[in-house]
Amino acid sequence: MSINPEEQNMLEELKKSMGDMQTNLESAYKEMEEKELQGKSHDGTVTILMTATYKFVDIQFDERALKGGVKEFKWRIREAWKNLTETITSTTQEQVMDMFKDIQVPESLQDLAGTPALEDDTKDEDEAEG
Asked: Which pTM was predicted?
């Protein structure tokens, strides 16, 4: 099976796009490894620090965190952990979305699926509703 020049060009563009995407992913992961995030308990007495790649950095608390005994202390740690994981998730999602908006998809690959662009679909739906 031979590939015609147009298909060869598309393959080259696809390889380049994939290479760019890999470079962007590696760069984004490196940034995430260095980005320290924190989660706090509702009263601010417990703070957990981690990187955006879930590498533990530190846990900090003051005497007020022990108020109410072990049960309350554990609850504060859980709150801080939950807050931290939500922060990491949203930070990671933002990073990925930012990364993908910068990826240039060659024009020849945009029409590869043979379907209209997303904004054209929404336009048709709006017209059908109106």
From this structure: 0.66
